[in-house]
Amino acid sequence: MRLFDSDDELAALERRVAGLAQASEDPQAWVELAWQLRQRDSTRALALAEAARSAIAAMPRQAVPPKLRAAWTARLALVRGEVQGLAGDYAAARHEFDTALRSFRRLGDAVGVGDTHWLSLTLAIDHGDVKRRDQELQAAIQAYAQAGDALRHGIADLRRSWYLASADPEAARQHLQAFDREAAGLHHPSLMAWRSWVQAYLQPLGGQAILANLSSYQLAQQSGQLRMAITAALAAGDKLMDLNDADGALEWMERGLDLARRAAWRPVIATCLQQTANVLRVLGRHEAAAEMLRQALADALPGSRNQVIALHYMGLLAMETGALCSAADMLARAEHGFRRLGVLRPLIRVQYGRAKALLRLGRFEQAQALAQAALQSAQAHDLREDQISAYRVLAELEQARPGGSAEQGLRLLRAAQAIAGSIEGYLAPPDLLEALAAGHAAAQRYQEAYQLAMEANAVRQQAHGRSAINRAVSLQVAQDTERLRAQAERLRLLARAEAERADLLQQGNQTLQHLSAIGRELTARLDVTQIAALLERHVKAMLDAYSFLCYRVDESGERLLPVLCLEGGQPVQAPAVSLADPKRQTARCARERCEMVLHVEPEPDQVLPGTVACRSLMFAPLQLAGRLLGVLSIQSPRANAYGERELAIFRSLSAYSAIALANADAMSSLSQAQHELQAKNRELERLAITDALTGLYNRRYLDMVLERELRRAQRYGTELSVILLDLDHFKHINDRYGHQLGDQVLVSVAALLRTRLRDSDVAGRWGGEEFLIICASTSEPGASAVAEQVRRHVAGLPLPQRGHCSASFGVAQLREGETAAGLLARADAALYRAKQSGRNRVLSDASPQRS
Fold first, then answer.
1. DSSP 151
2. How buried is residue 801: exposed, middle or buried, by Cβ count under 10 Å (0-12/13-18/19+)?
3. Is the pTM of this model over 0.85?
4. Which residues of 280-306 are buried (b: 16+ CB within 10 A; e: fewer)?
5. DSSP structural state of residue 206
6. CA nearest 535: which of 625, 669, 665, 652?
7. What is d(CA 549, CA 563) in angstroms, rounded to the nearest whole number?
8. Packing angle between helix 430-442 and helix 446-463, nearest 10 degrees?
9. What residues are labeled active site?
10. pLDDT-derived band of residue 708, with 50, 70 and 90 as boundaries?
11. 186 DSSP assignment
């Protein structure tokens, strides 16, 4: 059995097991399926493993060879151990692995030995034991080599490349190149996932690195490596954050967190929380970030990579909130941890982060040494975004320390800006641009300062747009939901005497989870009418909403226009409402921007004609970041239908609706802008390849077509001919009758060429009064016939003041091995002979003369 099956291989295995009534009919299939599901579906894997273990134990001794029985039992121990390790029960996992390893060694099963070491090294990683990790990996590689399993050996070899990349990227690149030469025939998704992962790590920035991460994410899912898929999603988010794309970063962090939560792997959830918290920190959501980091740190093993990363991020957060001494201490602990773990980039980052904290504490010499060390390491390994950060710290240090040079600080900032400009897809941090602007202003270079300030503003708007803030809010709601669910579960297990209270909490969590699912569904819609209809369906399912009213603010901002108004599920005609209307509660809700719960006896003039009078009413403004988008109202004929619970649900639904409407507006604006841009691009493309006067193709495009047709003719052995056409006595027309008439002649000839040539022919203006016709799949006689037809039509063109026009033609057919220049030269020579022979005729280089 493979280390990881592809989706197709797993489907075949599932079909094999589906035909079995019980495990005893084919224990091998059940063992294999449990093995392949250990990350895809841990709960089912354990159930299959237990069923297989019981079946194997109950089978008569003579029915199964002892070695095979022992191999199955050891393999099932690996399944249990991996699931336990992923869930954070490391002691139980270690026991299972030790048991399996002893069995595989007794059996002489090199693949089993290698798989045990492969899984054990993950435990070593979670504990931060670098030495044990390297020992386990080397043992796995040796075992796979002994077994002759090329696929497993390749995966393990790539994992070695990944570890090498964290300490010596150049050596890792060479190792990867050697691997590609040796494993050229291996293309299994499980292997390619690791190759993409290493490739992404070796490209710290830019679109290619992110694409490699996403490739690793997809391939890992296709091969059942769910933990790797989660890590790849987090890495994609981290790299998007390096490019200042907070929206994209949050999207991928959320994907990883969702996968980890569905699998219920606490250590992996902790990893996701700390990475997500770092994005929230950058977005300024400090409280939410601190809560996530505290939870991540509580679940992290002492000395583990998770613990060190959490300390790093908590140090950065402490620095941003002004707790500088605490920040310096946590960053120092993180620096020590990264040195022990032997990872390069995080070490560099924590060094310049700690340097910044020390700088603000006035410990300038220590800060200078740390920042210089970070810069030198980043330069040595071409980590450009880390060079930018180190330069910025050094510039800040130059400006802050006694005797520092403002001009030197400005030079350091310019160096950071130059590096930022060299990185594909990188948005220069706005505070870097603002610091440069301030430096130029201090040096009285006001024009440069103004330009940089405008650029900083544009970058800030792009990097921290509304959609990123919306996603941050949505993610925080999801995190609150998860925390409440976990609290309810703990209360249920620890205090059975309070079962009723725990049950109520569970119901509340289910409501919150339902709301979260509704929020995801709403925010995925981009059509306002669909959003309103979907919202009405969910509101009706959760609340007493006999009447449902959804209004949008019009473009003037002075009226509310009905989007969807229903009573008893049937549409009703509702008028537009002025925001200044003193009687309408909808208008009041919009003006005051507040929720309202009313229990009233309705007045006749406030009831829509033909509708039921309602005694319970709720109103909520649909607003986002201070912008009013509309008003939502639900109403019931029952008295006192709405309390605190109903208001809380309605508030959440309204918040999600506001996000959905804002997304719809943004998408509508983006779509319109894209359509306009596409139209402009098409027009620019047309202008780039056409002649402005005649509308025919220009010489640049003709060169491209000729080269393309020449390569095609040489590849497939087809014929190719060209026709050069030159108007006779054209200079005389311009000199005697003026350039306006000359332009009319050119336009008339161009129109003739557009209508009289074959569809396969390509014609354009070659220059001045000269035109070129490219005749694909055409011999010289055929092209000469085309030229003769065109000559007759040109001769028949009536021209004001001039009478008629004529033209001379030169034709040439491509010869074997000939270039485009040679072909054109022969056509030009034929044209010259046609001119010399009396004009108004067609000549080719293959015949003396044609008229």
1. H
2. exposed
3. no
4. bbbbebeebbbbbbebbbebbbeebbb
5. S
6. 652
7. 8
8. 170
9. 769
10. very high
11. -
